Amino acid sequence: MGRAMLVIAAAIILLIAFAAISSPPETTDQAAAAALAVDPFDSVALEANAAIVIDIPSGTTLYEKNADAQLPLASLTKVALALVVAEALPLDTVITIPYYASGAGSGAHLLKGEEWRLADIIDFTLVESSNNGAEILADATNAAIHDLHPGSPAEHATLWRMNDLARTLGLPQMYFLNVSGLDLSTTQAGAFGSARDVAKLFAYAASARPGLFAGTAQEGITLTALNGREALASNTNVAQGAIPGLIMGKTGFTDLAGGNLAVVFDVGLSHPAVAVVLGSSEEDRFEDIRQLVEAARLSFSDAE
After folding, report:
1. Domain range annotation of the chain
2. What one-character DSSP code corresponds to residue 132?
3. DSSP-derived 3-state class of residue 190
4. CA-based nearest residue to 174, from 279, 88, 82, 69
5. CB distance 92 to 119 below 8 Å
6. What integer is the mean pLDDT of 262-271?
7. Which overall architecture, per CATH, does domain 40-303 show?
């Protein structure tokens, strides 16, 4: 009887040992699956009031925070402006800088009476985030836009077309009261939209007119007037160099808007995504966007 018990005990010990030997691969697989299940966006902590990240090819929303809240846009407005200007006039059109252009940028100027190609004024306006540049573009293009869209008001055809574009693209929270996004007063912003609207606008811009916004992915660009004078435009997006695969970007900041920033970037080979932050601070918007870009890239590298 004692020997039988010993045999049974020995058998139990062997079963336990076999189970212990067999279990590590299963435990390892479970740990790997758990690691893959971790969402890189879980660690994101933003200063911004609203944000969104969208995978452009699939249209999948990877992250959102108050993404449909209507907020001031500030100079993100200038992307819509550039789109409607470029559809109305050839980019090699020569524009004479009007009398009000003095001081059109911080560190660079479009001087009155000079002649510039339209493409260079667009680059200057986007990269330097120049409000005067926006006014120059709108005024120079107004008649051509009115000819293309006879139903537009003759004196404000550019602004009308910007709003028409927002409607055409199906951006329900977006509208423009001026062409620059500058606050109209201490209580009235110059343009409004949601983070989702901005993401859709930027995705459209990057696919429809990629070359138009290429300068915004650079630290700075040198522009040359027809008389040979050069002007250096410095990028207001100081996070530009910290965003791998940056395709385009635009900053915005006013007292009412706070700090805004939107970027289109590649998360893989020819695989663009768009990230937007609205209502951050002037400095924290760059850290906010860096977190979103990093999380987006991690989410795709984990899936590969």
Report:
1. 40-303
2. H
3. coil
4. 69
5. yes
6. 94
7. 3-Layer(aba) Sandwich (3.40)
